[in-house]
Structure formats: C-alpha cells, structure tokens
Write a structure and sequence with these properties.
Helices cover about 55% and strands about 10% of the residues. Helix 2 crosses helix 8 and helix 4 runs parallel beside helix 5. It has a 5-stranded parallel β-sheet with strand order 2-3-1-4-5. It is of the alpha/beta class and about 200 residues long. The longest helix has 25 residues. It has one domain: Rossmann fold, CATH 3.40.50.300. The two termini are about 15 Å apart. It is globular, with a radius of gyration of 17 Å.
C-alpha cells in the first residue's frame, strides 16, 4: 500500500511536495492571466506548499529598471515595456525550478510563450469580470486601467487575451475563495498533469 497517498499531516504533505518537485525537475511553474486573477498571491502560496522559490516577473522588472511598472509605461510605452518583460522572463526561466507569476500581457508575446513552453508548465488563472474588477480597483498601480471606463477596458482585455491564455498547459478558475484553497487546487491540478497522485 502506498502510505504517501493516505497521509494527510505535515509529513505526508512534505512527501507529496517532494515527489512533485522531483517530477517537475528544473521546470518553472508559470502563472498567466489577467491582472487581478491572483497570480502573485496564489503563486506565493503554491511555492510555499511545494517548497520552491517564488518570483514575480513585475517585481523583477522593477528591480532591473529601478522604475515602477506605471513609470515604465509612462516613460517608454507598452512596446518597450513588453520587450523588457520578455527578456526578464527569459532570464527567470533559466533559474528553475520555481513558481513564477507573470504580468497580464506577458503571455501575449509569442516568443515568451515559446520560452515558457520549453522551460515550464503554464497555468492560466482564469477569473470572471466582477472578481477581477473587485480586486484591481483596490490598487492604484494598473496603468492599463487609468481611464474613464476601467470595466470596459477589462472586458476588452478579456476578449482579446482569453483565447490566447487558453493555450496554457493548464487552466484553473479563480473565484471569491480563500487563496489557500485555490493554491491547493492548483497543486492538485499540477500533480495530475505531471503524473503524480495529488
């Protein structure tokens, strides 16, 4: 009998995480999705559950550029920002294994998608419009929503990006639920995808 699958305490969870890390190898678990989907919050929890480092691509971009994301958008425009984002993500993918949260537009770049496919497992954190709006309106650092109709902009982003996000290896619907529950669901989804018993 496989006792690992039946253990539910900390020792059993550690063994499951260790087994999942072994199957993952050097691959990076890459979270994609719109702003407000929970990539950073859920990503930190998933990393803790798996005993892996967590990186946020936006935080890494800010560290490299010594500017905030809104400052980068204002100073250089979206095209230059996306080029920097692509390069930073490419560098991060070389440092696996880890859990990596990407910016909402990163997955739209074909080169970035190809790099992620070669070095990681992509997970789309999907969310409905009302959930996204409730989350993003709490923060003031969303340059794409600095306008008179943030809900309309978010709807357009969903229409444009969701078909491309659907190319990710895995998809998980986030909702108004505790982040620990979403993170646990993501770990189970990842385990099934990689062939391990959750």
């Amino acid at each position: 009998m496989n006792t690992t699958a039946t253990q539910t305490g900390p020792a059993g969870q550690y063994e499951k995480a260790e087994a999942l890390r072994a199957v993952l190898g050097k691959r990076v678990v890459v979270l994609v999705g719109l702003m407000g989907a929970g990539k950073s919050t859920v990503g930190r929890k998933v990393a803790a559950m798996l005993g892996l480092p967590f990186k946020d691509a936006d935080t890494e971009i800010e560290a490299v550029s010594r500017m905030t994301i809104p400052e980068l958008f204002a100073a250089y425009g979206e095209a230059e920002f996306r080029d920097l984002e692509r390069r930073v993500i490419g560098r991060l993918l070389e440092d696996g294994p880890m859990v990596l949260a990407t910016g909402g537009g990163a997955w739209m770049n074909g080169e970035t998608r190809a790099a992620i496919a070669g070095a990681g497992v992509s997970v789309w954190l999907n969310a409905e419009l009302d959930v996204l709006m409730e989350r993003v309106l709490r923060r003031q650092n969303r340059p794409l929503l600095k306008n008179d109709d943030p809900r309309g902009v978010m709807r357009r982003l969903m229409d444009e990006r969701y078909p491309v996000y659907a190319l990710a290896d895995l998809q998980l619907m986030t909702r108004d639920e505790k982040k620990e529950i979403i993170a646990s669901e993501l770990v189970g989804l990842l385990a099934r995808h990689l062939g391990e018993k959750a």
